[in-house]
Every structure is written in structure tokens, then in C-alpha cells.
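Collaborator request log, item 7. Partner lab (contact: R.S.) asked for a structural prediction of HIT domain-containing protein to inform their binding assays.
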Amino acid sequence: MTANACVFCRIIAGDELSQTIHEDDNAIAFLDIAQVTKGHSLVVPRKHHTDLSEISPDEAAQVMRTAVHVSRRLTQALGAPGINLWHASGETAWQSVFHFHIHVVPRYTLTDLAPPWTETESPLESLAGLAEEIRSWCDLP
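Returned to partner:
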């Protein structure tokens, strides 16, 4: 993808308007134009990466540091007693802009945002086969 094709790259370059609330050497944070709750923001790396499969762990950590800073700022500035962080990688995970980003969503009440899934507990022993399948992929140092 070219930088011009990516709306987040255009925002970073200053070619697209945004309401930026934080910038540092590695990331930029701006208000989401689709405010789920008051202050809903996006934190994006300055360098284009499509999703988790493309961003390095170090760059992801830099984005997360910025997300922590932004969440504290939103909590203090807006009086939000809670924050949700949300990330989606891939179309099947509801990613709609294919530039790695983290949503920082201030929460004001228990009902101002609906959970995307409901929790169903599985007996721990029933997860043993799944855990072994995941552990068998040794791509981590």
C-alpha cells in the first residue's frame, strides 16, 4: 500500500486533517471520527504496518507506551473512570483501516459500550489439547 492510499499515513504526513491529541517520535494519537464514547482515540505508529503480523515487537511496544500515556490523559482530562484498549488484525477481526492501530476508548458507565462477545467458561482440562497445539508452533525466541 502506498502512503497516499492509507488515511492514517496521510494524517501522519499532515495531508489529512485530524484532531491530534498526542505526538511523539514513534506514534501519533488522534480522536476517532466515529466516537464510540467521548474521547475515543486512535494510536498509530508513524511507520506504516498493516497489522500485528507486520509490526515488530519493539515498534508495537512503542505504540503501547503511547497508548498508556494517552489513556492516562483521557482519564484525567475527561474524568473517565475506565478505559478499554482495542486492536483488530485482519478483516475477519473487524479491522477496517489497514494500518496498525490501537483504539483507546474512555468508559464512563458499565453500559456505554456493549462487549463484542460473551464469555463462556470452558473446563480447564478441556483446553489442554488447544494449549499444546499453540505451544507446538515454536516461532518465538
